[in-house]
Amino acid sequence: MSEKAVLITGACGEIGQALIQNLSARGGYRIVTADLALLPDTIKSLSAEHLQGDLVNRIKQFYDYDFDIIYHLAASLSSKAEVATEEAHRINVEGTMQLLMMAAYRSEKYKKEVKFLFPSSIAAYGFSNAAAKHAAGVVKEDEYNTPHTMYGCNKLYCEKLGMYYSRYNGQRHLDPQPPVMCDFRAIRFPGLISAFTLPSGGTSDYGPDMLHAAGQGLPYACFVRPDTRISFMAMPDAIKALLLLADAPRANLSHVVYNISSFSLTAGGFRQRALQAFPSAQISFQPNPRRQGIVDSWPEDVDDTLARAEWGWQPQYDVDTFFDEYFIPEIRKRYRHPGMRTNE
Ligand code: AKB
After folding, report:
1. Which of 67, 134, 181, 196 has a CA-to-CA distance to 322 between 20 and 30 Å?
2. Which parts of the chain are beta strand (E)?
3. Model pLDDT for residues 79-100, shown as the tens digit of each residue
4. Do the Cβ atoms of 10 and 18 come closer than 8 Å?
5. How far does the centroid of ligand 1 lie from the alpha carbon of residue 205, in Å?
6. From ligand 1's centre to the CA of 33, what distance in Å?
7. pTM, whole model, 2 decimals?
8. What b/e string do you get for 25-47 counting C-beta neighbours within 10 Å, with b at 16 or more?
9. Cα–Cα distance measured from residue 342 to residue 187, given in angstroms and rounded to the nearest whole number
10. Which of 210, 187, 74 is nearest to 122 (CA)?
């Protein structure tokens, strides 16, 4: 079986590193990576070719490649995007638009669907305040799509762009013989937590940051209130979801955007779990009003019925197994034995 040609943008990010390791372990892929930065040593050998540079400025180069699957992970996350909104829009929207245009162009020209996997986010939702959020509880994909952040607006708009290029693309779907269109699929990820990499630029970062600080015996001041609740997921489950959706037959998919869920936890719950594992951990709460406002606009949890029904989504970890079988054992090793195993 010939290798599948895969492009992974944002390859140096948390999802990127974990995905490269998983695809490489699976075998059968020629992985081309792209990022502003050089690949870390841990994954350098797993990439057939690394295209270093600004995605938007380098887009023309991608037209020369015959990619079967694109995992477009490059993004400026919610907290960073609130500080540098214009740059976030350039990366999150212009970058995605240009890559979708490339996928649509090649799908039509070579009559072969380019599959386009896109990580959207719970940031695509928006609640006016914590009370409205609590009243809504678990939300479905088509509810409360009123994001409060630049990042959330970018993700929601790019979901629509993906739907446009994979279904309508210049209204060509109305042609007597519609052309082959790219195959866009998106997942609204909750806060993701890896035992092997640290988050940057996000607002769900307080969860992993608190745990990694506790593992190192460092004090941590949490920037949201203890009662703050959103959904989280172990990185291995996020990768499992991306691969499951990528492998699903297009005929089984009646949507392009899917919620996925694993567990929902308060910031106070994270503290309890951290203290159970590291009793001397010093964890305090110093809410940052703007970042608190961002998380208060995100749902407590999401309904993933569609993902379970249409492509067999099922998380491996719930809140207990996440801590007891994945996260705590790995960060104990990581911080007790710096330099030990580094992959998902
Ligand atoms: C962020 O905090 O910006 C991301 C997300 C929830 O999409 N981790």
Report:
1. 134
2. 4-9, 29-35, 49-52, 69-72, 115-121, 138-139, 183-189, 191-193, 220-222, 229-234, 257-259, 263-266, 283-285, 301-302
3. 999 999 999 999 999 999 999 9
4. no
5. 7
6. 22
7. 0.96
8. eeeebbbbbbbeeebeeebeebb
9. 26
10. 187
